[in-house]
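Put briefly, the fold is written as integer tokens. One such record reads:
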Amino acid sequence: MKKTICIFFSSKKIDRVISYYKDYIENLPSQYETFYFINFYKIINNNKEKLNDYKKYEQEYNIKVICPETKNEFNEFAKQRLIFAFDSLDKTISYFKVRSFINKKNIKLIFLQNIGSITNQTAFENNISTKNFLYLIKKVFVTKLYRILIFLRFFSPTYIYFECRRDFVKHFQTYEKKHKNKKSLFNYLYFENTIFVNGRSYDKFSKNTYNNSEDKIIFIDGNYKAEDILQRENLNLEQVKINYFSKLQILLKKISKVLNKEVIICLHPDSNPDEYKKFFDGFKLRKYSTAKDIYSSFIVIFHESSSIDTAIFLKKRILSLKTNLFGKYFKNRIQKYSEALGLMSVNLNEKFEYEKKYIDEKTKVNEEKYNDFIQTYLKSDEDEDGVSKVFRILGDYFNLLDKQYEK
């Protein structure tokens, strides 16, 4: 059987999927013919429309994009292959049809979680909105239904789970050791094999050669209309945008004046630069260069974002920016980062009246908390970079399964 590495996903756009797996695409070992991107969008949405032309992506990244329209079309691709597939499909009910027919002996699902963000697992808190509570109830129900269908063998379990957060790895590996040789619910409700890997940001930091300076003030944009927020909160987006951008502009101008440094706004990949230009005239707006820009920072300002990892590795000053404008869920997320890193916090709704001396004192780096965050969320116990380790592990399991099929 031909050993094949795929990414299973469903989207009209491929940019974000490529961005997430770019390091793996660029470092695919030579023994594999190519990276296959299997887009199930047409099947999930019963959609026959022509999707975007992927030829430019195929040529640029040396990948192959397949958009099957039927189950039989996918089966034709999958037969005579031993497939390890990075699973980027949702676990919601609309995806259940696809999950049923990728449940094959020769297809092993891989889950990659190498972004060391603070988890949402403790989201059932007292201080959440009604919409968020209902969203979580629905999410818990669908998750349990999904796990039951795995237990009943209608869906495939995750064969290998690559994770960079220490507490998750410890939890699942403990259960694996306990139930490894038993017929237990664990093997079908969770993951068959959990592997500890370095986070993506740690790998990038280890290889970066940017000059480190303290010339700029960096603001990390979180995208005011992030889907994660909109699913949980009832917001008037236009009103929120005007209010948020107006307050943010005032605050950034004041901080720039107090510290006598230029502000660079690092836009979220999903943010529209044209929207920001109307409100932030005079500020530099940049996209896709956040990590590089952080190297030039005296201080980094953010709400909550995995991009803050670079500032943590570099032991940069960080200012936590609080706001109630996006609802309780976002407010709670901001608080978690602030507490985990021991940060000075400023409320966007209050006047910024701090002197430079006060800011210098209050934003001194808490190295103990920074190091604890790195060890908990971003770095495994090994120096092997995440990409190399993932492909090494996949190679080992390919060989193991090959021997089993030969018998």
About this structure: The chain has two domains: 2-114+156-199+381-406, 208-378. The CA atoms of residues 117 and 306 lie 5 Å apart. The two ends are 14 Å apart (CA to CA).
